[in-house]
Design goal:
This protein is an alpha+beta fold. The chain has helices spanning 7-14, 28-39, 68-77, 80-99, 116-133, 146-152, 174-187, 238-245, 313-326, 383-398, 422-430, 434-444, 448-457, 473-483, 488-495, 498-501, 503-521, 525-545; strands at residues 18-24, 44-47, 63-64, 104-113, 142-144, 163-172, 191-193, 196-203, 209-216, 221-232, 253-264, 273-276, 285-290, 293-297, 301-303, 338-347, 362-366, 373-377. It is built from 18 helices and 18 strands. The structure holds flavin-adenine dinucleotide.
């Protein structure tokens, strides 16, 4: 079985090692670059300051898309850069769907129209979107009558509705997609380590970089890694690394925060998704079915690099206000199951003032003095194309002959042998509930069998982690043994997704996760209790700061929750390392 090495083993191999390429950052960009480089024969190591995919790459809207708004911007401002970005993303969208069919699937989105002009405008725009996609089109857009729109999206507000336009994009599980990239890289003998922050860069007398100094945040030690080329894939943190390599470089990034919330589906039955095409501040808002709940987002607000990444009560109210204009169901903050915030790393260009107008395209920068290659900006959807460009630049820095990228048709971990209805086979073969079979298949693909084989030797691993969740104890054991999970959050958030689905369910599942992690990682009783308490305290803080009801309702939970009142403390859902 090929999997991520145990962390201590990986640490020993990497420590003092000598590599062709060192990738800094374990988000979509870094993991994509590492896989691409290793496939092209470069001996590659990746180091990540926190957990893999723990920053922007697990806080996206989870759409593999060209971006209908960017197409509109391209047309309105005759901006060829925006157009080129949409074109490339539409082709990469197909790759995302094919490379990991257990983690990505086509999704139909419905744009409600309130006049004949809107039906014409959005209909024509989405036909252009189809046309640009060409052979990479998923399915053709359609113009719907008022009746057809209401049938397609139960729960849509009918007052003033003239009809709708539907079109297709892709939806994917961003956190698991990142883990599949990590696993795929590892099975090609790539080396990677989480909780390993680059704190300094090593260089020759002429300033050329020769390696990185890493702080192992769990062991509390520092060590060096020698590498012939260094790739900066640190997303929103890219300027810090660029200036570490060459202090004379000017900052390039503009940071823009976006939040999402998870709501119960209620009347929004079925699989159709809603796109609200225009808000008063000129944005789009999506309401998308997501593992049986409704994912709503996003907001957009420019932020300073040192600002805390938080979900604020007023941001949640903003999203609720908009979806209430388009959907019949009423939700309050008390209904919010989960919420998360992320930071877009946008490349500043020209004199554009508003981050909403900045192109989501990427840029490869090679610093002549240090040789640092930075992969800046971009989107999840274009991660593969960004990796191709980034590794091409790294090959040039290395003075190597060009080698073609091999990622376009490369099946990611868990995709081999996967087919629709795979979960039914799992349920039949292993006698597990349909809910658990579906959950495992959607998160781990054909790797599910590795998880289920653990139950054969210990049936207590078949137990759900808490009431109402499909996730089972065997996943915790698998994620520690095979996916380098080190904390309760690593498991409940990025590995099995319970935290993104429901903060309260994650709070409840924490003791069971702590129990199994303690067995696997040899924690003392004190370490186990601390790990669980720290996690639950973190969730309590997240809920409180976002103005959401506490995990533990009742007197122990503190002051009574007021679903209408503003959150008092705006420190919010925190992301940092
Ligand atoms: C609200 C929102 C919605 C979005 N929706 C979509 C969408 O629907 N579709 C889409 O295609 N794109 C979407 N995006 C964009 C997409 O999520 C990002 O472009 C992408 O995730 C960026 O990945 P990254 O790897 O560059 O950055 P990150 O995921 O932030 O990864 C950078 C990593 O570098 C690490 N790091 C930083 N400093 C160091 C150091 N010194 N040493 C080691 N590691 C370090 C960090 O810990 C981090 O994990 C969205 C973004 C946001 C914010």
């Amino acid at each position: 079985m090929w999997s991520l090495k145990k962390r201590e083993v990986a640490g020993k191999t990497i420590r003092g090692g000598c590599f062709d390429l060192c990738v800094i950052g374990g988000g979509a960009t870094g993991l994509g670059c590492a896989l691409d480089a290793q496939l092209r024969g470069l001996r590659t190591v990746l180091v990540e300051a926190g957990d893999f995919v723990s920053q922007t790459s697990s806080a996206s809207t989870k759409l593999a898309h060209g971006g209908v708004r960017y197409l509109e911007l391209a047309a309105a401002s005759l901006d060829y850069g925006q157009f080129r970005m949409v074109l490339r993303a539409l082709h990469e969208r197909r790759h995302m769907l094919e490379a990991a069919p257990h983690l990505a699937h086509p999704m139909e989105l419905l744009v409600p129209c309130f006049s004949a002009w809107e039906r014409f405008y959005y209909g024509a725009g989405l036909k252009a979107y189809d046309g640009i996609a060409g052979k990479a089109r998923i399915s053709p857009s359609r113009i719907l009558s008022r009746r057809e729109a209401l049938d397609r999206l139960p729960g849509l507000r009918s007052e003033g509705l003239a009809g709708a336009v539907t079109y297709a994009d892709g939806q994917f599980d961003d956190a698991r997609y990142g883990m599949a990239l990590a696993q795929s890289f590892s099975r090609l003998n790539g080396e990677l380590l989480n909780y390993a922050r680059v704190v300094d860069l090593e260089r020759r007398g002429d300033g050329r970089l020769t390696g990185v100094v890493v702080e192992d945040r769990l062991a509390g030690e520092r060590f060096s890694i020698a590498a012939r080329a260094i790739l900066n894939c640190t997303g929103p943190f890219s300027d810090t690394l660029r200036q570490m390599a060459n202090p004379s470089l000017a900052k390039r990034l503009r940071l823009s925060k976006g939040i999402h919330i998870l709501l119960p589906m209620r009347e929004m039955r079925g699989d159709a998704a809603l796109l609200i095409p225009r808000t008063e501040d000129g944005r789009l808002i999506f309401a998308l079915p997501w593992y049986g709940s409704l994912l709503v987002g996003t907001t957009e607000k420019e932020m300073a690099p040192d600002e805390e990444v938080t979900v604020r009560a007023e941001e949640i109210e903003y999203l609720l206000r908009y979806i209430h204009r388009f959907l019949d169901t009423r939700w309050t903050r008390a209904d919010v199951q989960s919420a998360f915030a992320g930071v877009r790393p946008l490349v500043a260009c020209g004199g554009k003032v508003n981050t909403r107008r900045l192109i989501r395209d990427h840029e490869i920068e090679v610093d002549r003095r240090s040789g640092l290659v930075s992969v800046l900006g971009g989107k999840w959807t274009t991660y593969r194309a960004m990796a191709e460009d980034g590794v091409n630049a790294a090959l040039r820095v290395l003075g190597e002959a060009p080698v073609a990228a091999r990622t376009l048709h490369y099946a990611l971990d868990g995709a081999e042998g996967y087919e629709s209805g795979y979960w039914q086979k799992l349920a039949g073969r292993y006698g597990i509930s349909e809910g658990t079979a579906e959950h495992l298949a959607q998160k781990f693909g054909t790797r599910s069998e590795d998880i289920l084989s653990l139950i054969a030797s210990d049936s207590s691993l078949a137990v759900p982690l808490c009431a109402g969740t499909a996730a089972i104890a065997a996943e915790v054991v698998y994620c520690v043994r095979e996916e380098m999970a080190q904390t309760v959050e690593d498991v409940l958030a990025r590995r099995i997704g319970v935290q993104f689905h429901s903060l309260r369910q994650a709070w409840e599942a924490a003791p069971a996760v702590g129990k199994w992690m303690a067995v696997e990682l040899g924690w003392t009783e004190e370490q186990r209790a601390r790990a669980v308490t720290e996690y639950q305290t973190g969730i309590d803080r997240l809920l409180r700061m976002a103005g959401l009801p506490p995990a533990l309702l009742g007197p122990a939970a503190g002051p009574e929750f007021d679903p209408k009142g503003p959150g008092e403390d705006h420190a919010g859902l925190h992301r940092s390392h």
